[in-house]
């Protein structure tokens, strides 16, 4: 059976040490199909761009003043050649060597529009030190998902198809891009809602989970959760609204 071609779109900003570990994990995947790497970088000054090019990635540079979440995704998707588009951030890290192959098998069902997994706090020294607040928040969701293993969603829910780590059909993206009305975030939920309305499914698979965290303490985790809860409505991107995210400054 022919394996679908894949484009992995990685969004970065000053992720050089973390990007090295990410590429090590991606190169170790057991997937046998064609994979291309696209890095959409926002004004990195730490060697991220040079390293990405060294790894054979196609690099697109955007200015911080032009950045927003859906725009950075659409830029990568526009030049992608793969049948399946995978969204990652440079400071996320897949848990497993079958992370890629396990997620792509779901697309054998023509009614599957996208696949995503939950996130766990990082455990490696290149990343922000994990906090008990993040551990509780993320492990709670991961454990609930682990009990179900994998399941299809025919209605939207909090966190559906989070673009920290998700895979979507390029043919469906061509019909409906990530909505730039959701510049501040929430473009993933909007896209999922659109596909569900067309009669497709979204798969949640714990095998597709990644490490991803920012070292938020309890207070900042509360702020982050409140911010996420507002993303059901379109909003502009303003980095000042994410003042606790020091990696954005």
Automatic annotation (TrEMBL):
InterPro entries: Glyco_trans_2-like, Glycosyltransf_2, Nucleotide-diphossugar_trans. Keywords: Hydrolase. GO terms for molecular function: hydrolase activity. Residues 7-171 form the Glycosyltransferase 2-like domain. CDD domains: Glyco_tranf_GTA_type. Gene3D superfamilies: Spore Coat Polysaccharide Biosynthesis Protein SpsA, Chain A (3.90.550.10). The keyword Hydrolase applies. The keyword Mitochondrion does not apply. This is Glycoside hydrolase family 2 protein. It comes from Candidatus Falkowbacteria bacterium GW2011_GWA2_39_24.
């Amino acid at each position: 059976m022919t394996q679908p071609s894949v484009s992995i779109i990685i969004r970065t900003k000053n992720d050089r040490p973390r990007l090295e570990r990410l590429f090590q994990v991606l190169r170790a995947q057991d997937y046998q199909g064609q994979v291309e790497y696209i890095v959409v970088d926002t004004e990195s000054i730490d060697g991220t761009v040079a390293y990405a090019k060294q790894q054979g990635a196609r690099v697109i540079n955007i200015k911080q003043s032009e950045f927003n979440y859906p725009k950075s995704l659409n830029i990568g998707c526009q030049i992608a050649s793969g049948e399946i588009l995978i969204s990652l951030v440079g400071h996320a890290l897949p848990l497993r060597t079958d992370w890629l192959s396990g997620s792509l098998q779901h697309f054998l069902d023509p009614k599957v529009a996208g696949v995503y997994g939950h996130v766990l706090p990082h455990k490696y020294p290149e990343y922000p030190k994990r906090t008990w607040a993040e551990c509780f928040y993320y492990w709670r969701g991961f454990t609930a998902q682990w009990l179900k293993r994998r399941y299809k969603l025919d209605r939207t829910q909090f966190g559906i198809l989070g673009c920290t780590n998700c895979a979507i059909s390029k043919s469906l993206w061509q019909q409906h891009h990530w909505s730039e009305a959701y510049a501040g975030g929430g473009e993933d939920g909007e896209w999922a809602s659109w596909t569900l309305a067309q009669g497709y499914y979204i798969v949640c698979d714990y095998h597709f989970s990644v490490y991803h965290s920012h070292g938020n303490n309890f207070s900042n985790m509360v702020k982050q959760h409140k911010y996420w809860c507002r993303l059901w409505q379109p909003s502009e991107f303003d980095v000042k609204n994410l003042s606790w995210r020091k990696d954005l400054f």
